[in-house]
Amino acid sequence: MGYGLIITAALLWSLIGPLSKLAFREGLSPLEVAFWRAVFSWGLFAAHALIKGQTRFEIRDVPVLVVFGLSGVSLFYVSYQLAVQKGGAALAAVLLYTAPAWVTVLARLVFGEVITRIKLIALALTICGVTAISFGGTSLPGSTLTGWAVFWGLVAGFCYSLYYVFGKRFSVGYSSANLFLYLLPIGIVGLLPFVSFAAKTPTAWIALLLLALVCTYGANSCYYASLKHIEAGRASIAATFEPVFTAVIAYFWWQERLGLWAAAGSISVLAAVFLVVLERTENKHP
Question: Ranges for the EamA domain (predicted)?
Answer without folding.
Answer: 2-134, 148-277
